[in-house]
Amino acid sequence: MRAGCSASASSCCSRSPSPTTAATSRGGPVAVGLAIQIAFAVLVLRWSVGKDALDFVAGQVTVLIDYTRAGIDFLFADVVADREVTIFAFEVLPVIIFLGALVGLLYYLRVIQWVVDIFAARSTGCCARPRSSRSTRRR
Predict the structure, then answer these.
(1) Which of 12, 18, 56, 84 is deepest in the core (most CB within 10 A)?
(2) Is the pLDDT score of 3 beyond 70?
């Protein structure tokens, strides 16, 4: 397992272009992404403030998922009550649909694009996508 991970990491970070990715990437975005992941890991694992921030975000996600559970209990209380097993269609699928709808709404409101633009701007500039007149939508 460890040899496979190191071989994968070395092939992603190597400067020699492969035939399939020679025209699309040069390794800079991969190195920046890897550096961001390492910095995030150090922030969370070695610094108590980072761990507390991650715990806060995880708690907020749990609250969001609890809203879907409240909706499931409201709609399917008779079906899912007193069951020891999870019924996928009544307990898991509504959570997936709710989160998908939430992401769709955030995409429509252009929040997702804004977040991606922020992360692209913080990289070395090699990942930033150019703005074109066709990509902006009029409302």
Answers:
(1) 12
(2) no
52, two tokens: 């507390």
- Secondary structure, 3-state, the chain: CHHHHHHHHHHHHCCCCCCCCCCCCCCHHHHHHHHHHHHHHHHHHHCHHHHHHHHHHHHHHHHHHHHHHHHHHHHHHHHHCCCCCCCHHHHHHHHHHHHHHHHHHHHHCCHHHHHHHHHHHHCCCCCCCCCCCCCCCCC
Query: CA–CA separation, 99 vs 107, rounded Å?
Result: 12
Q: pLDDT per residue over 46-99, tens digit each?
A: 989 989 999 999 999 999 899 988 888 888 888 877 777 778 888 889 889 999
Q: Give pLDDT, residue 2.
A: 47
Burial of residue 137 (CB within 10 Å: 0-12, 13-18, 19+) is exposed
Token pair for residue 42? 């150090």
CA angle (105, 110, 115) in 5-degree steps: 110
Owner of token pair 């709404």: 105
Tokens of 69: 């559970």
Residue 108: partners with Cβ closer than 8 Å, 6 or more residues away? none
